Amino acid sequence: MKTFWDGFENVKSRLTDDNGLPMLLKLKDWPPEHDFAEMLPERFNDLMKALPLKEYTHRDGKLNLAARLPSLFCRPDLGPKMYVAYGSTLHLDKGTTNLHLNVSDEVNVMVYVGVVNDEDNTEHYDAIMNAIEVSDCDVPTINRVQEHKELPGALWHIWDAKDADKIRDLLNKILLESGKNVESYHDAIHDQSWYLDRELRNRLMVEYNVRGYPILQCEGDAVFVPAAAPHQVRNLSNCINIAEDFVSPENVGHCFHLTEEFRNLTDKESLVMPQ
């Protein structure tokens, strides 16, 4: 943990790969076993005060069906969970979190955005602007960075749940085009091995008429991800995010369907099953 945090904003302190290049590390689902509210009660209370749509997002929210489960059910771990990752602006085809979908709804809050302290940030800023320009974001979003000088943290792409099978079909098609086989137990989304760069997103639009929602998340922004909606994230800067899950009445059908679907995953896919 110390090594991870030492390298969070100092590239020279980061672990290196076999080629001597700084590694891009991610701390996922922290704390892994303990309740965030018990480990960091003050931070938890601050987060709860800041969350939007409290009727949905609070543990005891009136519209959070997870709070209404009878005691005989195994209650899901709704978090909050912390996600901390180094920025990767120089790799446009690589994601910090690859394409996947969640069983429940989620609100993700960007609580901190930082830049490296021991390198010239000119290249970093140019790479951020390049990433935003090829992300399909709209003009007001781009202006947040260019005119209002907000520091962007992460770039999201979210698709409608109804388009998940079309995305699977495209990714399977690409595998077949490359001469690989598509196994019967394979699921192109659940295995979390794809990041849809601009070329793949354009193919999805041209061949399937499916367009996602690009979202630039700056410090203080909350991003809502509906249950079963395929999504991916790419950190443009070094970021600390906190995610809180909930079960909305609108998407409870998706939650039930996905719970049944995940029962049929292989052991390998179950290891990376989104919470």
From TrEMBL:
Alphabetized UniProt keyword annotations: Metal-binding, Nucleus
Organism field: Orchesella dallaii
Keyword Signal among UniProt keywords: no
Stretch forming the signal peptide: none
Subcellular location: Nucleus
Upper lineage: Eukaryota, Metazoa, Ecdysozoa, Arthropoda, Hexapoda
Predominant location: nucleus
Protein name in UniProt: JmjC domain-containing protein
Domain spans labelled JmjC: 58-263
UniProt cross-references to InterPro entries, sorted A to Z: JmjC_dom, LSDs-like
